[in-house]
């Protein structure tokens, strides 16, 4: 059958546009809503949230914060911003999400942010996925998340058969046989109400009448920390890119991980993004046994115009300069490896 050349070219262009559209990255919402069915090319994600205080079910609010609630901060690993799921009471949920890997990063309760760090995977299938019942138990001010498999109780949420993809801990970085916390082991570093592990030395705190937080001087900042009193240990350092939810940064994708450093200083091999928050931490290593990651455990302050919180279990963080022309390393240069 004869097809005019112009029409044939239009067919090729249309096919190319369709292919490009199918390859477009998934679109993630700013907030997660309860839905009855999945959107096109997405999957229904089912589970339950139970909020507890000292092992007893509780509303997420009290006499002082009766109108507040909780927000789960959820990150798609190939996304650039976090999503939030707000709730006031223990409840079931059903979200519509594109296939991929996700992390429930934190629980925000009236600006008290505590780490959750549980992952789940949404497979590329048409059926609903059950990720578990998430118990968020606040014991003596600290969050203890627990995942339980109660899939039989959720069969009524969907007419289709459920696929299990239960929440699990975030993958441990590097090579290790075990973890001994700073509070349980002799790592030669403090474990107190203020900090666990090393303390940050560089980047330093910003200076000036309008300054808040820590600021890097360039896009390949030197990261430095206090040393252990033990001489037979090495250090692992991890650097994460921040993602934002309502203007608040959270630890997002891993940018770099370095294992077995003999010195208490390190520098990223590649320039970081300008005008972005980054999170970092250090753990101590003795052979294949490591400490937990160093953190601020409970430290609050107030900025000049807005409150600044460093919350329980929070990693260290800094901001990169927003003006790349002011950074001496804005353009990649050839640096030797820092390993």
Which key terms come to mind for this protein?
339 residues, mainly beta, Immunoglobulin-like, six-stranded mixed β-sheet, 24 strands, 5% helix, disordered C terminus
Fourth-tier CATH superfamily name of the largest domain: Immunoglobulins
Kindly name the structural category. mainly beta
Instruction: Kindly give the count of domains.
Output: 2
Total of DSSP H or I helical runs spanning 4+ residues: 1
Second CATH tier, the architecture of the largest domain? Sandwich
H and E order: HEEEEEEEEEEEEEEEEEEEEEEEE
| Spans of at least 5 consecutive residues with low confidence | 6-23, 63-67, 298-310, 326-339
* CATH overall fold name of the largest domain: Immunoglobulin-like
Residue share in helix: under 10%
Measured by DSSP, the beta-strand proportion falls in 35-45%
**Cα distance, first to last residue?**
64 Å
Major sheet attributes? 6 strands, mixed
Q: What general outline do the C-alpha atoms trace?
A: globular
> Number of DSSP strands?
24
Q: Mind explaining what this structure looks like?
A:
With 339 residues, the chain is mostly beta strands. It has two domains: 43-169, Immunoglobulin-like, CATH 2.60.40; 178-326, Immunoglobulins (Immunoglobulin-like, Sandwich), CATH 2.60.40. Helices cover 5% and strands 41% of the residues. The protein contains one helix and 24 strands. Strands 1, 2, 5, 8, 9 and 10 form a six-stranded mixed sheet that branches. A hairpin with a 2-residue loop joins strand 19 and strand 20 (289-290).
